[in-house]
């Protein structure tokens, strides 16, 4: 405890017009947070102001980040502002490190009022990279739209913020630190915790660690290769997979979190994770996985680099769900996927007679269903998979889930769902919006329904086309304008959607999915045999060009 009480100040500021949180938090170029006066302070103040004062007073908050550049500096400011805004206790991962799923887990375990996560997810880090701030609420999940809208409204009119400028936290030492603030009876406390332990404990209760250890033991010869891409997952992989489950040390690479992720793009897909893809092609490893910067996304690869696309991943997990002990205890309440995610999961849901939900993009929609006890397992095409034990997607959970299936039985798939997403990145925002409006006009024309497109010998007839909207079955909220869908007879689909996670300009995502029952096509590259992409969509392509 410090000797004299620390000053609490209220300082004047001016609003910024561009603090609207995207699909998952506010992401900007790092220099925006670092150099623009009070840009960080304003947004943090708006987060605190969005919490009712009575709930905030004396409450506990969790803070963690993926270790990217500016992480520790931002945490010092957040703690100074938390103290000045009446929060009683802040729990922080040692060195400011805590993965997004671990933050969700800790919020729930210690019944915190919420958490702040410093991450720009899969975007590059460093002074020239991206930085981001996410606010998760008491259920452990991303703040619902009503809250993020409120934060945005507050950010447009903010005039002052509260701060204890002299407060300094030692982020390196595990344990409690207390600070006396002027005008406060109780001290403000900061608790530095091991970022892995509490989360690892949850996984121990979900999976059978003895079975997994056996699978990874030398006798069984399942060789795995995990790439943490110098993101936050490294310490979790080392502790859980290597130390505890006995996977050899060389099975885990790039496990030291770095401020710039080693100069790479910490995005687990076939392009940015090419190092792992190439290694897997050698055939030395049976199972490979890679994670994004903050540890919530994952990509799974099989022997010889076989790509398990994320839409299929959640479907395979669903079909084998009882290989995971947790679900044997809880039962299965429902499955869910985001709209652009392929319909593979729907087929499993139909076969198992389990309720399926199709939600807009963004994990918070799943969180709402989980809170209502309607959802157990869900996934997204954007490399996200997870379950209702927390309210975030979870890369390491997905790995242990897959290994649990491998431990019980070798995967057999009697069909393959081919799906692919193409991103047109950093296009002009206005042009992208205009393109979407033009396209919507075109597909809403009644003459568009029934049109037939021919690819080789196959014909695709448009059955339906719309701008997806979602009525939340729990609270009735309607989310409009969630992406354009062109659905063909037989279930093949083309989806157009503007990304909600850009820090700069816009990304237009095109998603193609189709059911392929020919088992011989299982190992073919979806990029070369994908019919829908070859379809004569000249009208559509010309809209895309005008946006680029
Ligand atoms: C976030 C959300 C995901 C969502 C993704 C979409 O992921 O948590 O639920 O699928 O954004 O990204 P986009 O809008 O660019 O398609 P993350 O990993 O960035 O937190």
Automatic annotation (TrEMBL):
Listed SUPFAM superfamilies: Phosphoglucomutase, C-terminal domain (SSF55957), Phosphoglucomutase, first 3 domains (SSF53738)
Superkingdom of origin: Eukaryota
Classification via Pfam families: PGM1_C_vert_fung, PGM_PMM_I, PGM_PMM_II, PGM_PMM_III
Region of interest: Disordered: 1-24
Keywords carried by this UniProt record: Magnesium, Metal-binding, Phosphoprotein
A GO BP annotation: carbohydrate metabolic process
Boundaries of every Alpha-D-phosphohexomutase alpha/beta/alpha domain copy: 19-159, 198-303, 311-415
GO cellular component labels: cytosol
InterPro entries: A-D-PHexomutase_a/b/a-I, A-D-PHexomutase_a/b/a-I/II/III, A-D-PHexomutase_a/b/a-II, A-D-PHexomutase_a/b/a-III, A-D-PHexomutase_C_sf, A-D-PHexomutase_CS, Alpha-D-phosphohexomutase_SF, PGM
Regions of compositional bias (Polar residues) in chain numbering: 1-13
MF terms in GO: magnesium ion binding; phosphoglucomutase activity
Annotated family: Belongs to the phosphohexose mutase family.
Alphabetized NCBIfam families for the sequence: PRK07564.1-1
Listed name of the protein: Phosphoglucomutase-1-like
Organism: Sinocyclocheilus rhinocerous
